[in-house]
Amino acid sequence: MISSPSHSSSPTHSARLKSTAPLPPTELQQAVDWAIVSRRSIRAFLPTPVSPEEVHAILDLARYAASGMNTQPWRVHVLTGAAKERLTAVIAAVDNDDDVTATLVEPYHYYPLEWLPPYVDRRRKVGWDLYGLLGIAKGDKARMHAQHGRNYRFFDAPVGLIFTVNRVLQAGSLMDYGMFLQSLMVAARARGLDTCPQVAFTKFHQVIHAELGIPDTEMVVCGMSLGHADPACIENTLVTERESVGSFTTYHE
Length: 253
Description:
Strand content: 5-15%
Organism: Acidovorax benzenivorans
Low-confidence stretches: 6-11
Number of strands: 4
Region (Disordered): 1-22
CATH class: Alpha Beta
Distance between the termini: 54 Å
Mean pLDDT: 94
Domain Nitroreductase: 36-228
Shape: globular
CATH superfamily: NADH Oxidase
Keywords: Flavoprotein, FMN, Oxidoreductase
Largest sheet: 4 strands, antiparallel
Number of domains: 1
Number of helices: 10
CATH architecture: 3-Layer(aba) Sandwich
CATH topology: NADH Oxidase
Family: Belongs to the nitroreductase family.
Structural class: alpha+beta
């Protein structure tokens, strides 16, 4: 278990939230907008370290995410160094064994059991756009497997995060969790860092539980890579298409 960094006493975020905004309105809007719009799923990271203090600061902001009745359902496991390498090695060993992976069961259904348009079309497009950038041809199962396996190395990011939730909580807490994860990723962007949220880890929840000593009362929600994007890697040029506001919004007057 990795201990959190020690911190000297300082004004709480609650106190700071009551103070004047740190930037003029237009600059503040532009800064927040930039942090949201520039967030992308990064799939190749530099080895540049991220300090424990930076990780703590990001989590310290993300904890202000909204949650129903202030339940705050999130629990976070931060992995760096040898701890991260041990987990990635154990998962890789399982991932490369077809007989074992065939027996794995997801802890919850993240994706639909039946894919329908337009969701299946969007899923296929982002997959083939990524493989196209990497030069992976359709049917090249070996390279697809190798690329997917990079998930379990946290795409070489210096920090890996595993998120869990108590099993007694219901679907509403997963909605709350989404707001927490988005807050974390936006806070990372404000610090010049990048992330990749990864549901790929859930299939290996039993391995993760055993390696990190997570009690059975907790369920793995997802993982996340955190670090500095490698600008030289072509996969990081992928920008997914987004629907216009008009395509998903109905105004009632």
